Amino acid sequence: MKSLGSIRRSFAPWADPASKPFISFKNVTKKFGDFTAVDDLSLNIYTREFFALLGASGCGKSTLLRMLAGFEQPTSGEIILDGQNLAGIPPYRRPVNMMFQSYALFPHMTVESNIAFGLKQDGMPKQDIAERVAQMLKLVKLEKFAKRKPHQLSGGQRQRVALARSLAKRPKVLLLDEPLGALDKKLREETQFELMDLQQQLGLTFVVVTHDQEEAMTMADRIAVMSYGKVVQVATPAEIYEAPNSRFVADFIGDVNIFDGTVAAAEDGRVRVETAGGVPIRMASSEKLSTGARAAVAIRPEKIRVTRQAPQHAPLNAAEGEIWDIGYLGDMTVFHIRLKDGKVVKASSLNAVRAVEDPLGYDQQVWVSFGEDAGVVLKD
Ligand SMILES: Nc1ncnc2c1ncn2[C@@H]1O[C@H](COP(=O)(O)OP(=O)(O)OP(=O)(O)O)[C@@H](O)[C@H]1O
User: What is the ipTM of this complex?
Assistant: First the structure.
């Protein structure tokens, strides 16, 4: 998915004990009355990182961003940016800029005046403003639109003006609150890649708030998954997807099958789980689990095979069922398979070949199966 993947692959300052974080939240709590919006949260973000805060509505992600911008003060804890404690520093004196979902462009001003606005307020000399505005217009590819008013632009173009305006002051950190929320799906996807390119070119640190997991997965170097004011997991998109640290994260990101059960044996990096539905599962796992403990096995639909014949390893990591539902999505097909105990398992397969000679059909008896490294074992 990531076009810049090959360049970015070696970018992992968080994995290097020698690198110093650029932004640190240290035990930050924010209360509104007796309501705790952010709860004793600690988090490090590194220079040039594209960092995403992801979570359901109300989990506290915007509050966290607003505290970094200086629009809210933490009730307790510290926020450090580039070695400086931000306590008491007003928003306009912080080296951060925030871009809002609504873009907040001035409707009566042209594109170039919108971009120039903050620079004028800062008292930048006229000639320098003109140069900077031209540079910004070029960056967001809107040179031809300089004299237009916001209402004469498309949603995507307005979004780029807002971006140019937030970047004009050369903030060290750009904070983006649902930056692509107003765009339709296609434009949103294109703009995601534009944003990533811009961030790379300018070498900035981006912190983006989103509730759209695909957006976070596509753009971010790392994602913090939040729930009720706490960070549940911070990791790269691939780690979050392939190795969620909890049932919450597994469930929140993408589609997943969860098999609940009890640990029957755990040794040599493998765990055997007797599931409630009677499917015996053996899974590679580095988790420390004791026999008899409750556990859940999470397996993504694309890791589940659907076959007419029982696999050789059956009944281990395999179960018989019936095709209950078929969703044809063009690029892939999703099967819902009802196992004998009534549990419905989701399996997906890529439609890499155009015509299927003998496709699986409704009500057909099939086997679902998976390998020992297809999923993760989660402590309950
Ligand atoms: N000024 C305020 N006064 C009281 N409660 C607030 C205030 N600002 C936020 N909250 C509450 O704090 C919680 C977190 O809000 P926040 O805006 O950070 O959530 P969010 O994760 O960004 O959600 P969304 O995706 O809906 O914007 C919410 O329950 C919200 O109602």
Answer: 0.94
